[in-house]
Amino acid sequence: MPWSKLKTDEVTVRRTELLKLRRQGVRFDDPRVEALGYSSPNAARKDLTRALEAHRKEEKAEIGVYRQQENERLDTLLEAAWPQATQPTPIRDKEGNVVGEELDMRAVDTVLRLMDRRAKLNGLDMPAKAEVTGADGGPLALSTADPDKLAALIAATSRLDTATPANTATSTPTEDEEAAP
Fold first, then answer.
1. CA distance 82 to 133
2. Within a domain: residue 102?
3. Is 45 among the domain residues?
4. 18 C-beta neighbours (distance < 10 Å), count
5. How far is Cα 158 from Cα 168, in angstroms, rounded to an integer?
6. pLDDT tens, residue by residue, 110-153
7. Predicted TM-score of the model (pTM)
8. Domain assignment present for 131
């Protein structure tokens, strides 16, 4: 049996208060959480999970509506641009004689951009794969360095003039290091 309007409102208010407390970093076993009417910290945790899940479902439904509207808009725009992009138009000389045909390249570009937008909107494109490789496409060489080697590397690649930098957190010298002769 569905909840009454009063019960639904009570749960909404309690969940809102619980969310406020959680955002403040209040733990589930805090007395302020129990004061909201939860029988145990686990009950509060489960209720928060239910609230977040319900919110995700609402967001998913809204995203579906948005995606449908955007697809309909893209359909309308594509319908308008398609004839100019696919049907050659005659090229005429000064006297009006047809000397050839050509496609409207701006319309072709518009159609391609609309198709690209649709693919992105609907997740049709395959994800781009990236691979990190070492020199000449070989395997990436990984190694560990001791603190002395690391300090020397930092010194060699930074703007520091000292062999052993005192400030290894950044590549800029501290005021003391700049004042040193």
1. 43
2. yes
3. yes
4. 22
5. 9
6. 999 999 999 998 988 877 777 777 778 787 777 777 888 888 87
7. 0.48
8. no
